[in-house]
Design brief:
mainly alpha; 0% strand
Length: 258
């Protein structure tokens, strides 16, 4: 029991330290955690709702849907990148002091979760500006999907962090893949714009499922049917199992390969 308490304290200390160091020395400090997705939203909202379609795209509360999609995906993108690089960035901790490697990975992903929590202020602000109040069920769904996003981040990080120690090119590859994934996820467009067959294929991507049904829930109070949810949950569970199995297989060689 004492070990679990020590691990919790260690993880939380590492996460807080990462969070402080990330914005240390910058003029705006912690405001960058909010400004980065906000600036991205401003640009994309202007391009897709004004330049490409100045008369309006006919999507219910498009700006709110876009903002929610950007912040959720930004959480996934930054969380996976931070988790993947966590062991190498803490090389001295890995080689000179014995701590369970998974605590370092968990702390780095929690740092991204703290930034995501700050971004919820932006979402709440814009919903207030538009005077739009989602239903209690859709808010609960948003919370649940946020947790599942974190589970996916952790699953990827457990697998990728030990691999990144040996294969440094993974960061470049993942950066390209997340850019592709951004446009393969219904963020700047709606899923309904695609043919029905493509919609089914796209929803096999758990991030597309999360973003689509989070937007649908918050804005239109529309939720996924039973079988789509079952497939999604199975995908998340399998992803997490793969992450844990990969970590257990690769973890013993981490210190040697740094």
């Amino acid at each position: 029991m004492r070990h679990h308490e020590n691990y919790k304290e260690l993880i939380w200390t590492l996460a807080k330290t990462d969070f402080k160091l990330r914005y240390h020395g910058s003029v705006l400090g912690y405001l960058w955690a909010i400004l980065k997705p906000l600036l991205m939203f401003t640009i994309l909202n202007f391009v897709f709702s004004s330049l490409f379609n100045p008369k309006g795209n006919g999507i219910h509360y498009y700006s709110l849907q876009l903002l929610v999609g950007i912040i959720i995906f930004n959480f996934f993108s930054e969380g996976t990148m931070a988790g993947m690089m966590s062991l190498l960035s803490k090389a001295q901790l890995v080689t000179k002091i014995y701590v369970p490697r998974w605590t370092i990975i968990l702390a780095s992903t929690l740092n991204s979760a703290l930034i995501f929590l700050m971004n919820l202020i932006v979402i709440a602000f814009f919903f207030a500006v538009y005077r739009f109040l989602p239903s209690p069920q859709s808010i609960l769904l948003f919370i649940v999907f946020s947790v599942f996003t974190y589970v996916l981040i952790l699953a990827f990080s457990l697998m990728a962090a030990p691999l990144y120690v040996k294969f440094r090119d993974l960061s470049m590859i993942w950066e390209v893949l997340t850019t592709m994934l951004f446009y393969a996820t219904p963020i700047v467009y709606t899923l309904q714009m695609l043919p029905a067959g493509y919609q089914k294929i796209m929803l096999l991507n758990p991030m597309a499922f999360i973003v689509h049904f989070t937007k649908e829930g918050l804005i239109n109070n529309h939720f996924a049917d039973f079988w789509k949810t079952v497939v999604f949950l199975a995908t998340v569970a399998i992803s997490f199992a793969i992450g844990v199995i990969s970590y257990r297989k690769l973890a013993p060689r981490i210190a040697e390969e740094i």
